[in-house]
Here is the input.
Amino acid sequence: MDGATAGAGPAASKKRGDETANLRDRGAVVVQYLDQLKPKVLAAFENDNVSVLPRPELAVRIGHIVTTETDDASNTLNLLDRRNLVADLIRWLLHCSPKAPPKAPPPQAPASAAQAKSEPVPVDTLAPSRDPKKASEPRVSKTVETTKVRIEPLVMDRLDVSAASRLPRTELALQLRDIVNEVLAEEKIRLNSAEQASVVELLLDDMLGLGPLEPLLADEALTDIMINGPAQVYVERRGKLELSDVTFRDNDHVLNIARRIVSVIGRRVDETVPLVDARLQDGSRVNIIIPPLAIDGPSISIRKFAKKSITLDVMKQQNNVSEQMATVLKIAARSRLNILISGGTGSGKTTLLNALSQMIDERERVVTIEDAAELQLQQPHVVRLETRPANLEGTGEITMRDLVKNSLRMRPDRIILGEVRGSEAVDMLQAMNTGHDGSLGTVHANRPREALTRLENMVGMAGINLPAKAVRTQIAAALDMIVQVSRMRDGMRRVTHITEVIGMEGDIITTQDLFTYEFEGEGLDGMLKGHFRSTGLRPHFAVKAAYFGLDRRLLECM
Here is the structure.
């Protein structure tokens, strides 16, 4: 026993000596910059009564000076050094300022922090700043959430935010962990290592990510996230909506997340622009609407980007289409048919459009046009175009129609419209009729015949006075196929119609169904029963398929 203790003594002493030397070196670096920055800090506050300024304001202003003046020393000063430098400069300024009282008042701590310093308090008994009735975030315990809410202002007060924002997430996590551990020790909060790591992760999500949304965005089982104010966040899982246990602090917290989303793509959301479409960095589509248009607070709707690419083969395995339907759709895309995908909101139109686009030859030049870019084309030669809203003066707007017109001058082999919903339908039909075959687009409609009617109405929105027969003739000449997609009440998306546009018969556009879905009932598991049925008709585009050598395979599927 004594021998073991004696043997450990020199090693322990050496380790303590190394740590002491390292701390002394770090302290010398901080002292060097402290003397260098004192005159600049004093000059910056020469017209202020620093004794009445809140400590957070002092920390922000001095932190900006530290970041600016030590920018070239980023390899010498780490985040903890910068934090210590800011704290030392605040103490020095409060002590030496002629406008400050002789003895600088100590920094005010929150009431809960003052109570905590008297004796260790179990974290679960701490009063959180948010409504206690609200649920915590997914996979995060109440202890972790309560601790994060309590120590966040203390951590941010010691952090040089401008310097931290330029660090990689991994490096910032390491340095933030040290600050969190220090604050936890001061506040006498006891957490295990897993809980400490969770607190750091939540703080990182708030600083660099989208806060409470991060775990939802990481969940690949979710397809939609709908935020109806701070206390109500719904998600769609397997085609059905459910209320999540994610909450925000208040409406301002939701609004800050919304602004962070739109700022990345150079847009803004405020009272002058209360409605905006945007996208996340992974391609997820976002719609944001805030007061005064949203009466109960900011609302954010996110259509998540699928991490795994959905192909027609995957859709066949998931029973979204039959094997014969998948083959016919592949042949239609290979044969350069002009295809319109029709369906309701959330029915899977964009997913099917992405699946069809995988049949496009890699040697073709493809131009995509969208309000908020979300298509995931895999071809190497793709030009992605996105609309732009008007500025504050009401000018500078670039519409879908402007982009469609411009795309015709870009020598495209195919034009893909994310969604046709206005006067751009005229230019799309003209493009399809002037050699740009193989184009794709989506439209909101409940049945193939309704999709044709909507197209006709959208042509009228362009202000072009044409007889109804002339518009229908142009539609019939431009379109080859309409694919109807539906999200059914069991949550499953299914292709319910594959319909060909044949031509005109008098004043009516004639069509024929190649495949339909026939509903038969509901199983014990709640899933709908039915089957995909071929009508047995010879496809009108068999001639086009023969040009590409695909007619025999096409006829076999019928």
User: Anything to note?
Assistant: Residues 1-8, 99-139 have pLDDT under 50 and may be disordered.
